[in-house]
Design a protein that fits this description.
There is one protein chain. The chain has one domain: HUPs (Rossmann fold). It contains twelve helices and ten strands. A six-stranded mixed sheet has the order 5-4-3-6-8-7, with helices on both faces. A two-stranded antiparallel sheet has the order 1-2. Helix 2 packs across helix 9. The longest helix is centred in the middle third of the chain and has 19 residues. It starts with 11 loop residues before the first strand and ends with a helix. The chain binds iron/sulfur cluster and zinc ion (ZN) (2 copies).
């Protein structure tokens, strides 16, 4: 098998591009994809400071590695969610990687910030899906921290497979509002809200795995023990089935949507009236933001929980 670009021995085959690459040419391909995503979607400039949310999983670890290697000014932030062994292992991987490469890293312990770990919140509010509460807390803290430390942008490792699965879910449920907004760059709607970007939106999970192997980047493979089988896994499986039959399907679906389909779903936006939360001062459309309402609820339930469990 010969490399499509330089004709040396190829290491990998990318069916959707009908191409085979040696290690060096794969690097060129990977870098072109990310750089063109950053520029085409106005994500950030070389001078801007970028905050990268790093969970310890393959996508965020490779995004962190890529942006640093490419010379961007990057600071990583990792949330220690307090999910026992899982959080310990993730934190260890991220800290060790930062130490070995002298990469700047901030660790935010959710329990210290909000008074409760994620499993403690789950115990107190068992009727609400834990991932929606955990996601809300992470998004809030990430934005809060980025704003406080004067970052204008934060980047996450969402890839083409993630976005195609989200798109499929949005189409199946005709979530017009989400279809109108699903985009690799979400601009800031308020001075206290930081722009969010996804520089890997044109790269598949398979391509990210190749990058990770080529660079020997450590990552945590196990899933979070609190995660239930999410609908998005089924959507990914369905798309992978189609991809197998017809390589390039996911690419056509997601990137074709951005180029051609999305304009049919664009909604006339009524002006968003964002006030400031009466508790934390961050932007919200209500009197109290959803993060502060959640934390208030957990505190109320804490009293009942302690009464019920004899103060333990
Ligand atoms: S799977 Fe759910 S609970 Fe676990 S880290 Fe992700 S969002 Fe949080
Ligand atoms: Zn080559
Ligand atoms: Zn608030």
């Amino acid at each position: 098998m010969k490399c499509t670009r330089c004709k040396k021995e190829a290491l990998v085959k990318l069916k959707r591009h009908n191409a085979k690459f040696c290690g060096d040419c794969f690097e060129v391909f990977f870098s072109r994809q990310v750089e063109s995503a950053i520029k085409r979607k106005n994500m950030f400039s070389e001078e801007e400071k970028v905050l990268v949310g790093v969970s310890g999983g393959k996508d965020s670890m490779s995004l962190w590695h890529y942006l640093k290697k490419a010379g961007y000014e990057v600071v990583a932030i990792h949330f220690d969610l307090g999910i026992e062994e899982h959080s310990q292992k993730s934190r260890q991987i991220v800290e060790e990687f930062a130490r070995q490469n002298s990469f700047p890293l901030e660790i935010i312990e959710v329990k210290k910030e909000v008074g409760f770990s994620i499993p403690e919140i789950k115990k107190r509010i068992p009727y609400r899906p834990i991932c929606s509460m955990c996601g809300l807390i992470k998004r809030y803290l990430l934005n809060f921290w980025a704003f406080r430390e004067h970052f204008s942008v934060y980047a996450t490792g969402h890839n083409l497979d993630d976005e195609a699965a989200t798109l499929l879910g949005n189409v199946l449920h005709w979530q017009i509002d989400y279809l109108s907004h699903q985009h690799p760059t979400l601009p800031s709607p308020h001075p206290k809200m930081v722009k969010k970007v996804k520089p890997f939106y044109t790269l598949t999970e398979e391509e990210i795995m190749i990058y990770i192997r080529l660079h020997n980047i450590p990552f945590l493979e196990e899933r979070c023990p609190l995660s239930r089988r999410a609908k998005s896994w089924d959507y990914k499986e369905a798309l992978n089935f189609l991809e197998e039959k017809s390589p390039g399907t996911k690419h056509m679906f997601w990137l074709g949507f951005l180029e051609t389909g999305q304009k049919y779903f664009r909604q006339e936006e009524p002006p968003l009236h964002l006030g400031e939360c009466s508790i934390c001062g961050m932007p919200t459309t209500q009197e109290v933001c959803s993060f502060c309402r959640l934390i208030q609820k957990v505190k109320e339930r804490e009293e009942k929980y302690l009464d019920y469990n004899g103060g333990k």
